[in-house]
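input
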Amino acid sequence: MEQKKKHYSRADIIFLIMNYTFFAIFTLICVYPFYYLIINTISSNDLSARGFINFIPKEIHLENYKQVLQLRGLPRAAFVSVGRTVIGTAFTVLASAFLGFMFTQEKMWGRKFSYRFIVVTMYFNAGLIPMFVTMNTLHLTNSFWVYIIPVIVQPFNIILVKTFIESIPKSLQEAAEIDGAGFIRIFYKIILPTCTPILATVAIFSAVGQWNSFQDTLIYVTDQKLYSLQYLLYQFINQASSLATMVKNSTGTGLNMAAIATQQTPTSIRMTVSVVVVLPILFIYPLFQRYFVKGIMIGSVKG
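output
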């Protein structure tokens, strides 16, 4: 049987045109800043510094990336950022899943008090100085674990996971309990596999937060070996002029490379480092997008 063609009224057509136009413009507004950064990093540094590169790249080259990737401390900072992102995300997801599960268990002693106590921390903060004193007392300053431990328990993530778990039929857990499964076995065998969408959402939140964070390095870390990539970006942007001079005066790369290096400008340094830091998230985010949308929709509404 042939499907009937849907007929649109004039009002529907006008609405669709306006709707698609609005979202097309909105998409361009969101995408253009990244496009602007990229075309300026691969175009002539002189033209870029004078603001002549707006839509189309000119005199394309990739020397900016070669020079920026040779900046001192960048590989180590990248290793620190990747490490804190992977380890921090894993711990945060596991803690959010376990606490979210336990707060749905009526047998848990002090469940309501503990849950409310954690939620309260979303609204009240001791402040920067008490936090620094606490980290220093716990010997976490100038330690890699200062990136991990303070952010393991995230109230917002726990609320998302708890709400998601409450939407799962209780008959699954009851059946497992009849078969003799304990809380830990139920958590690993039933809850974790069922909560994949919301856990992927929590993973995105945590990974983006860990990757983009630089204030914890600024406050708690003075050891250059523990500098994160974002903190180096912060330093590079503030010292772009001196970095450009350093790259220009760099030797040992050959005559051609030296000639290209002299074209480095503060603008090229800022934009190239920004692209290097942003690109990993831009590539990873689409892989989790389908879980992200499903997890937010299910985890935010109970019913």
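quick obs: Residues 251-262, 299-303 have pLDDT under 50 and may be disordered.
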